[in-house]
């Protein structure tokens, strides 16, 4: 977790130095990770390279600009749902039963080894 936060801060700093936008772990991205079950950094890197190359092409830019805003909002809603549902489930389990997802008491320490 700490390495992920450090990576986000470092990416945001480098982006700001070059006049770019900050990089954050948006809920849509986390939802996409949960839906596809693909969390490989190599896949993420390859996708980033493809998007950088396509971003320099005028026809691809016009295609992205032609997508209506309601379609983008619907895609964001669908990709954000797994994160929201997982969070609500976790809160309900903790409040109602004092349990975590593992089924143990949230207040009890881990069993000795």
From TrEMBL:
InterPro entries, per database record: NCS2 (IPR006043)
Keywords associated with the record: Membrane, Transmembrane, Transmembrane helix, Transport
Compartments where located: Membrane
Domain of life: Bacteria
Transmembrane segments: 42-60, 72-97
Keyword Membrane: yes
Bilayer topology annotation: Multi-pass membrane protein
Family statement drawn from the similarity comment of this UniProt entry: Belongs to the nucleobase:cation symporter-2 (NCS2) (TC 2.A.40) family.
Name the UniProt record assigns to this protein: Solute carrier family 23 protein
């Amino acid at each position: 977790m700490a390495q992920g936060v450090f990576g986000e801060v470092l990416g945001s700093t480098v982006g700001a130095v070059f006049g770019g936008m900050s990089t954050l772990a948006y809920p849509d991205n986390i939802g996409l990770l949960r839906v596809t079950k693909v969390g490989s950094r190599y896949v993420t890197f390859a996708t980033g390279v493809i998007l950088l190359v396509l971003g320099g092409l005028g026809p691809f830019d016009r295609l992205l600009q032609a997508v209506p805003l309601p379609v983008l909002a619907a895609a964001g809603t669908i990709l954000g749902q797994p994160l929201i549902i997982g969070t609500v489930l976790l809160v309900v389990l903790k409040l109602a039963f004092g349990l975590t997802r593992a089924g143990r008491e949230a207040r009890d320490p881990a069993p000795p080894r």
